[in-house]
Amino acid sequence: MAHEELNRQVRQDLRVTDRTSHRRLREQGSTSREDLDAVLRAGFVCHLGVIVDNAPMVVPTVYGVDFVSRTLYLHGSVASRSLVRAPESTVCVTVTHIDGLVLARSVFEHGVNYRSAMVYGVPRLLTHRTDRRGLLTGLRVLTEHCAPGQWEYARRPSAKELAATTVLALPLDEASVKLRSGPPDDGDGPDAQLGLWAGVLPLRTVWDDPEPDPALTAGVRVPPHVSGRGHRTAP
Amino acid sequence: MAHEELNRQVRQDLRVTDRTSHRRLREQGSTSREDLDAVLRAGFVCHLGVIVDNAPMVVPTVYGVDFVSRTLYLHGSVASRSLVRAPESTVCVTVTHIDGLVLARSVFEHGVNYRSAMVYGVPRLLTHRTDRRGLLTGLRVLTEHCAPGQWEYARRPSAKELAATTVLALPLDEASVKLRSGPPDDGDGPDAQLGLWAGVLPLRTVWDDPEPDPALTAGVRVPPHVSGRGHRTAP
């Protein structure tokens, strides 16, 4: 009871502050490494924010994480023009998973169940000239994070391809996580008496069956590391 | 044949430029309004980029679009602190749908099938003080875009709730779209002879069955506008 009162007090305080950052009891900020790693493991596309000509630019791109060296890798090309112009500049990498729509009794309490991580830092640009070994490591981590098994299976980059590739390496030093899960927050308020349905409409991302390239030579079978992902919740 | 040679020429040119922005024949930039609207209609969460203390900040947040007035609405709270500090500042709103992993014969040709839109602009901040009617319109558009039917069904915002709410309105004037679909691009190159499997691993987002709030009064049934979304490809 004391706990419930405390919660109500906290919620009241939060209600008047910034709505999305801190607004709900079931929405939590976390700086735990475990939460961060779980969010990063559960995806392979991030949104990279850079500053170009004094304006923010947000670009979707694939990423991969080496959880031992605690490094996040990105294809450098996506940001290379801005980073060449402004080296040593901070980027923001955001990874988001949407788990459902929170349908409350009131429009005001509507929201989204989600898991999201933000990583800030100044990335290192890896090229075949400056750090060939680092570049290869980055490409391997990127490939295996997105498509486990493909680094062994597919043809690896040639010298010419490596010369045309840059990778960004971002340390996982400065990061935060935000999560929300569970039902709407107005189940114990006056709106609960309105007799309206409330709940969550869950959203799920799944892999479908692999679609072979129509140009594929007849008789080439789907390798198990690819077929094994079908019909499973992604990734 | 002439067409194929032209394609090969173009591809060769693209290969040496920026990898993600322009690298592939099947990856296309578009400035068509139809493509833009289709990408925006197919989602309800965007990544908003703003500049805070000279660093980019990328925040996931819900959005809604009024396709008649061609206005994109966002919850203002998410960016209000930065926008109050720097009004009249440009933001970047990016919406991305991931449709599959492109598994090529070579690591270099791996990629993602996706649809993505970027909208740039200086948003107007709508509050109950400056534009109560605009604020209500924005909230209705946001609600109906994310959860069609809920603006009629749920309790609408009270005066107190409106006072605690801000909405950003961004005109759809400056926007671009990027799309990639189809199989890998190395089916007609020398790597096609490697005998490796290649294709696409499709990714799909689906709504699951609604989960009622455990606090729900017994006997309240899921309204049709909610139950009708279950098991359909989102949104």
TrEMBL record, chains A, B:
In this chain, the stretch annotated as Disordered covers: 209-235
The record, for InterPro entries, names: Pyridox_Oxase-rel, Split_barrel_FMN-bd
* Pfam families for the chain: Pyridox_ox_2 (PF12900)
Q: What protein name does the entry list? A: Flavin-nucleotide-binding protein
According to its UniProt entry, this protein's organism is Wenjunlia tyrosinilytica
